[in-house]
Amino acid sequence: MAQETRKGLQLGRRGFLKGAAVLGTAAAVLGGKPIVGALKRGTAEAGAKVEEKWVHTSCINCPAVCPLRVKVQDGRAVHVEGNKLSKITDGAICAKAHLNLQNLYDPDRIKGPMKRTNPTKGLDVDPKWVPISWADALKTIAEKLNTLRNKGEAHKFLLIRGRYTISDSDMFYSHFGKAYGTPNTISHSALCAEADKLGQWMANGQFKYSAYDLERTKYVMFFGLSPVEAHRPTSRLQRMWGYTRQERGERIKTVVIDPRLSASGAVADEWIPINPGTDGALALAIAHEMLVNGTWDKKFVGDFVEAGKKFVAGQKVDEKDFKEEMTFGLIKWWNEVLKDFTAEKAAKETGIAKETIVRLAREFTANRPAVAWRARGACAWTTGAYVSYAIFALNALNGSYDVPGGALVHGSASLGKLPTVAADDLGKKASAMPRLDQKGTKKFPRAEVVSNNVADAIIKGDPYNVEVAIGWFCNWNFSAPGAPRWSEALAKIPFFVHITPFASEMTQFADIILPTGTTLEEWAYETAPDSNGVPEVRIKQPVVKGQFDCRSMTQIAIDLAKAMGGYMADAFKDVPPADEAFVKFATKSLMPEKELFEEKGVWVGPAYKYADHEKRVVTPSKKFEFYSQGMKAALDKLKLTDADLDAIHIKARGDMLYLPHYEGPRWLGDKKDFPLVLNTYKPTLNSEGRSANNTWVLESYLPVIGEAYNNPAEINPVSAAKFGIADGDKIEIESPFGKITAVAKLSHGVHPESLSIAYGLGHKHYGRNARGKGVNPNEIMGVDYDHLSGHSTYFNTRVRVRKV
Amino acid sequence: MPRYGMLIDLDKCMFCQACTMACKSENNIPDGMFWNKVRAVPNGKPYPEYRVTPLPMPCMHCEDAPCVNVCPVSATYHRPDGIVAIDYDKCIGCKYCIAACPYGARTFNKTKAFVEVGGKPAWYNANVPIRPQGVVEKCTFCSHRIDAGQTVTACVQACPSGARIFGDLDESNSPVAKLAAARKAQPLRPELGAKPKVSYAPMMKPEGGK
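Above: the input entities. Below: the structure tokens describing the complete assembly.
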């Protein structure tokens, strides 16, 4: 050690002498101003002139796609800040935005197109990659696609979309996919928030994320999400956390309901641990309390015709006796569900004291505008869409709908659209074929997509085999529940192209890899996700020269269509010839090009107009529905029998099918044999998995439990003692579907019936830093759905543990 | 001459680590080292009363700084604006300062930084030197930014909730001085007598919610 120190010192002294010689000129140029800094020894740049500029772009480390300003020194991206012109972020960025620097310069990125030379495919099999040119790669893919299409089998082409820019999606997923004719454009959405969306759709007809007017909210109950850790848009939620607590005047109250003490639970005013999968019961009891106490919002919901009438627990109400205003179906909801859903009943389900439930209902109504906010922790369960519906409906019951401080419906921006292409006969025939994911069938009655079901369709070859697949920014044999099934499915696809900046687990099964850039190198446009109601458009442009021989997704779609020739080239003849031109074409109506790309980086839409119900409530009754006529129409059309409903594990019958109700979790694994519930969560730095090889991420991964480079199995000490497990023990975690070995971490922040593991580690691939650290809980997670929406369940797998 | 200090509002901090990431990027911090780590302080109670509080820990830039007092070669010193700085040319790597610092703010460069990428990463900030092997380093309150005329540190700029405020403690109208007074902000372990210039405003209770 002493020698090492000494050596360092000597090296340093030499450096000092060298540095001293140039100190006199140590002034760098920053917009004409000299930087006088600590430029002494240890940096070769001491004394050199540094050309510095800021370039606008936007992030892609989560769906918030926040506008960024990136500092560039001598052609290198060196620092990231937010864009103050954004009304959604107010100039804030979250920790994830900084990671773009490490992603950009990651030494393990894919440097050019590659093809496999080993025909055997497997997660642990070396594909024996060899570099090929873009021309050769595109030609090979074009031939495969043309052969398939010309055989009349365009439906056997699978296009998988993971994270995407809106321009990628418009160009590849929509324009390319539609022109080719495959019905199988499969997004990751049903691994994300489809149950949440469907809950809102039942209420107001809007199949999308919810927006909330956080600036003006006085009280928020968060059901199954960690708003400042892993919810969209993170930057806005984090900015608002500070604003609503200490800047605007009246301090907000926040309540986080979650079986695990998340970062948000830790800093919220109240953390309420709940029995896993029972959020719906809590929401219904709060609704019950609001009605029996007469604290519902009479202006929005309406009132009894006759003054003095009341909701009494257990007693039905005649529909004629109540006049609804902006809502539809309250009395049906009361009579069928709410009248018996007392706080006492919910206390038994949720493990939350009856007094606490009563108090939450009182606080919620006494602190208007108050918001009930839900996400996958509450909804990614069997019958989770009904849970989403129940929680979302609380906002209407409380009058917190489309008013200042309430739940909003986010506006949309209008961008230049690509010309629609008339389908040819091959396309028409293929697009009429049944989809692989069975969306909209009796199995998934109101699904838009069933992402995870595609693996089973491929494995079974049902309804047909997949011949060619292209996936981009996705890693589903790592990120989907039942992850190993995806490896099996991918190995079965004769020709698979993976478009990605990093060689992930999914890339292992590719026949050709096309490298795409990271967010700091690409042309794209984005629309802001649902947040404050005001639409925003953000742009992406290369802030530095592309690192390697990469192309953007948009460019790849254009190039591939051209390489295919014939009908596909024709379908692209009116498309701008390059990604930059396309992005500028689509955004040109917003403002002059120079202003958007050089000066502003963001387009902000018109201010939100509250209570614009005609636009915001698009249900059959034109009212906020507590009884979903949209769902009734959808299910009626499919003529579901009792046996059909049994098969998709829905207990409700009759009117109950269209009402926010609670069925409780369906477990994968018997409680007796598998006493714990596997609970997984996404830490902020995970960035939807795209930061897996970042050292900044690994060394700060789990701040709440103080863990780095590892994701231990977090167990309540009381439960751990029952199983003879001590802190730091190596334990085997077994579900009905497999086993993993992890390190036990005893934590009082975990529900006694839960075993919590952070998602994101346990990689076999993705780069030198990612490999071999921690575990991937998705390997032992069972496959199940909220069948109505097709959303994968993430939390209903049971496990047992033993010390190894 | 200003006397720089920082206030960290624990009512706004939320474990997000944006400060940590911005600091790594701004100050060319090697893997495994931190100038600004967010620590977790548990309340010691069992489930379900268990809670942890985030505690971001930069250098406290103490007025009576133990690190300055013990440095045998005056490599660690107070700038006129009160920032505790290290002269990497003078540091002999004895680590007395690491032992003396009550806040664990300092790290020793045991190995040469960024060797795997030829001595510096492509994202390095040319305005901040990469520290040589054998010296101690820590948070500088982004003195290179202050010297270039900027008013805030990288962590303050990056904090999305606005939990950090930086400025002149002697100017009674500065936001940092005003807020420190209004919120009765306290430094960590004041009884140690180091007179830290980073103070923490406590977590608050909601006004409504009854």
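Note for the figure: Chain B has one domain: 4-201.
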